[in-house]
Structures are given as structure tokens and as C-alpha cells.
Amino acid sequence: MTPISDTTLEPLHDTANEIFNGALKACNIATAFDRRLQFDGPVLHRLLPDGSGPDTIDLSAYKRVFVIALGKAAAPMLEILLDRMKRRKGMRGICASNQLPAKRNWRFRYFESGHPLPNEDSFAAARAALALLRKARKDTIVFFLISGGGSALFELPLDPQITLEDTIQFNQLLLASGAPINEVNTLRKHFSAVKGGRLAMAAPDALKVSLLLPDVPLRTLDALSSGPTSPDHSTVADVRELITRYNLAEKLPASIRAFFERADFPESPGNKKWRPSFLTKFPRSDASRTRPIMPASNMSDEDEAFQHSVFEILLSSHDLMENARKLARKAGYHVIVDNACDDWDYADAARYLLDRFHKYRAQHPRLCLISVGEVTVTLTRAPGAGGRNQQFALACALDLAQYPGQHLTVLSAGSDGIDGNTQAAGAIADPTTVARARAFGYDPAQSLAEFNACPLFTAIGDSVVTGATGHNLRDLRLLISERG
Question: Average model confidence (pLDDT) for the chain?
Fold first, then answer.
């Protein structure tokens, strides 16, 4: 059978891009904010999803309002909060992100922090936030605006003797380990002075409202930006087991290895038997501010600071998936969602999803298989240019090459618009990808082995480029088939 031309597949590429970009566009932070939270003068209403009515916070009961915004979406989240909340008296705050707004509020200090590796501003932002939070009292309400990327953008070692250079090396090692994000962030939580609940501990008496845009599995929300305001249920024993499992001890900088090996290595704050539900309610405006929001029976004595905490999820990968599902159905596809391979190795995830894809498309020729979440890549050598999405797409391309002449395509891309060390969000593969890459002088198998997928996809025009989106709701994978 003669291989199908790339021009014949262009409409299918366009469809995949339209579903991806449309799903991203529908995940609007401002719309999500207004769907869950509303300000009525000095009163903040939280609209409960079960329809039982709003819980409220009366801001006039507080003399000070502090705002700590951290993560890739810190700037737009802060802008929306300031637009909706008209109160300015007693307001101060910190904004730490990799992209800062052109228009800045004088009440806030802005830090252009590093991602995927921390920089000097990452440390400076954390120090400034801790200094501000130490001024908080019972008459203070603190809004924490937390989005993906905060683990690098907002950092400070618990041991003040550990340098930025060693911290960067530590993060490089974690990113190359192949560990899923919740395990990577378990190590970060115990390393950091502002993660694993320690940021909340800096303002124990204040009411703390965390507004979340998670880039982690919803079952592990305390991994978002390594859980700066969340009680941590991981333990020192978990940390040491992970260091052994991923053979990290000999690779760690000497200062960090000594820190993790200390006999008095401290536990992070949080009852280790407790699992956060993230379903806590705002206290009623007429209730005592000292009323525990989380059941005291579930908290140990060291967790007193978390008894004045509220968590609200504004958007998540579930929203990204649901928007993609609606768009695919509108386009006339039979839609199947399978997120079982979340946090799997990219090669295992590719094999799993392709097996399901080929099975289901035999029954439903016009099919869109949707998968959200992230895959992992274990770096066994210095990488080229590319990230987990392009690596996944290239692995899929090698499989699709076995189906010449068939109308098949795979799109894998990150919702933040950046894949690894590139400016692409991801890539698209189809049955002609391998042949076209070879025509441009690329060896797809070699590019895969060298973690260097981006030059190949760029050369054949199949990189997905969106630019920075202002948030990160994890990755979206689309496997689409049509009748030839």
C-alpha cells in the first residue's frame, strides 16, 4: 500500500490541534474563579458544588490581607483576585513566577523566579514570603494562589548552609530520575523551608485560603508546588526509601546528602496518618475565627496551624479532559477516556494507549481516545532538545509507521505550552512521521534514544507551539482515527 501523503493527513492534524487548543481556551482562570468564588462588597462567597448554598468569609473582620501568589499562573491569578476583591486596606503580598506582568501593583513584591530550575529570585521570593507571614496574627487573612511550577519558582532549603548551586543540582537530579511527580515532591517537601506545609506554619494563627490550579493528580493534591500550605503525610522513612530506590545518595551534592543523613532529620508538619480531603468549608462569617475548619480529632498537636485552612480547586486536569471530550464529540468522534497511565514511563504509556487505540478503533473507526496526566522520562544520558510529550509522540510515531495509508494521528502536549527544555508544547505523530523524518536526514530511533525529539518534529513541521498559556493543568494526549 502506498504511504498516505502528509497533505492528506493535514485535516486530521488540524482537528487534533483544534481539540487541544479549544480545550485549553475553555480552561479560563477568570471564568473558573467566578464559578467558584464571588465577592459581594467585603464578603467572599464560596459557591458549593453540591448546591447547598454558599459559605462566606467577611473580610471586614480582618485588619490585614496578605496574598502569596506562586507558580506559573501566579500573575493572572493575582490579577483576577485583585480585580474581584476591591479591598486594599492592609493588603500586602508576594508574586513569584517565571513570567511577570507588565502592570504591577505597588502593594506587592514581584520576583522573576526560575523554572524548571530555581534561581536567586526563587530563594528571594521564599524569604520575602516568610518574612511577611511572620507578621500575620489572628486578625490576618492570607490568600495563597498556588499553581504548577512552584516547586522551582519558590524555594528555600531548610538547611541555610545549602547553596543555590547545590539546590539546582538536586533538582536536576530529581527531574532526570524518572520518579513520578508525587515522589519527586516528597523529597522536595522534606528538603525545603517553604514546602510540605511549612509556609502555612509561618502564619499559624491567620485564616489561610489556598486557591489551587493543580498540575498534579487530584489524588495527590498535596504535591502541587510540593504542598507549601498542605499538611504533609509523607515521612522521613519515605524520603530515605526513595533515595535508595532511585540510587540518589551518591549523586547528591555533599551538603544535601549530609542533610538527608542527619540523625535529627526533621519530619515535615502534618499528621502522618491523615489524608487531606480538600473538601473543607469556609467558616461562617458569624463563627468564631478560632473554630477549627479541619476536624481536630484528625490532627496532631503540631498541626494546629492547619486548623485555620481552606482549600479551593479552581481548575484541574479534569476540566481539561472534559473540555476535550465535549469538542471531540461535537466533531463527531466516538470518545473514550483512559487516564490509567498517569505517571507511567513514557514508553509504557505509549504501548498501553496504542494497544487500546488499535483495539477500540476496530470497533469505532471514527475514534478519539483521550488521556490526561503526565508521563515520566528517565534520563540515562545528557538529553538533547525535547520533553516528555515529544518523547511520547515519537514513540507513537514508530508504532504508527506500521499502518501506512491509514488516517491516524497522535497529539501529546503540555497545557502550560512548554515541553521540557523547548518552546514547543508537544508534537503530533502519524503513519508518515518516520518516513518524513528520514527524508530530512533524521533517524527517529536514534532521536528517541538521545531524548532529542524536538529537532525532528520541528524539521517536519509537526511541533505543537502555543506559547506560554499562563497555567498548567498537566498534559493532554489525543489518539484520533478516521476512515480512510
Answer: 88
In a domain, 1, yes or no: no
- Look up the domain containing 331 and give its range: 6-25+318-482
Q: How far is CA 169 from the centre of its chain?
A: 21
Indicate whether 111 and 66 sit together in one domain: yes
Looking at the DSSP bridge assignments, the partners of residue 210 are: 144, 311
Tens of pLDDT, residue by residue over 415-471, are 988 888 888 999 999 999 999 999 999 999 999 999 999 999 999 999 999 988 877
Retrieve residue 362's grid coordinates: 476496530
Q: Are residues 12 and 69 in the same domain?
A: no
- The pLDDT tens digits for 287-320 are 333 222 233 233 333 466 677 888 889 998 999 9
- Give the CATH number for residue 341: 3.40.1480.10
Span of 43-57, 152-166, 184-198, 466-480 with lowest mean pLDDT: 43-57
pLDDT of residue 48: 59
Nearest to 254 by CA among 166, 122, 127: 166
261: in domain: yes
Between CA 402 and CA 123 the distance in angstroms is: 50
Name which of 347, 325, 346, 327 is nearest 336 in CA terms.
Answer: 325
Copy the grid coordinates of residue 292.
477549627
122 φ, ψ to 5°?
A: -60, -45
Helix (H) and strand (E) counts in the chain: 16, 15
DSSP code per residue over 168-234: HHHHHHHHHS---HHHHHHHHHHHBSSSTTHHHHTSTTSEEEEEEE--S-GGGGGGGGG-SSS----
